[in-house]
Amino acid sequence: MSQEDPKSFLLDIQSFKKRIIIKYIILFLANLGILLFGFFSYSEDKTNYLLMSVLILILIILMFIRNGKRQLDILSKMYFEISGNLLKQHGANGSCTEIELDKIKSLKLDNLLGYKRILLKSEKGETHTYSRIIKFDTFIEGLENASSQKIQTLHRNKIKLLAKTIILYSPSYATYYLTRFSYTKLNMEMTYLILTLNTMFFIHNISERKFEGGISNKLARRLIIILFLYFLYQFYRIFYSGV
Questions:
Q1: What SS3 class is residue 129?
Q2: What is d(CA 211, CA 160) in angstroms, rounded to the nearest whole number?
């Protein structure tokens, strides 16, 4: 990397701000949907339930605003630095992690949700992802020079992904088909239960560890935990609440 190239790279905070806003809107709508479902399913006096729901939504909004500001504050203090053969990630609390670029296994580039993303695989087999960085092309150039590797553009195997989707969701299709026949004693509640279970397996199979260029392992774990809790709720409704 030439001397006039910048060594420090900041995150695109505006991009992260949009992402956080969209994420919290989706989470708010999901919580609103759950509360509305409970409201219309509640056969007794709905006044208390409505008041409780409004209070819960207000608390959720306040929590989202607080967490969003905290996340943006942390991200605004983070930056990356390429120094010699080292890639340093400086945290908001003064912490610093380092990766030896001359020992990495691979350096790949893909596109996720309209943003370029770098997939850097370390010598230990760990995958580190980087996106939404100001002067992204200069950052890539610095990584290439320090690692002596040319970045490869990653093309996802869409046929493989389609095949996985069909196979993993086949139990849901089968269950839905069997609901047509009364002797099976299956209903749509059971179809939704199987669909949730299939979705957990699907998310696991499109995570980075199972599918190159897939969603991050961290995001996959979070989604699976949420779906598992919902699965337990569905299981209870079907087998213990008499639905």
A1: strand
A2: 9
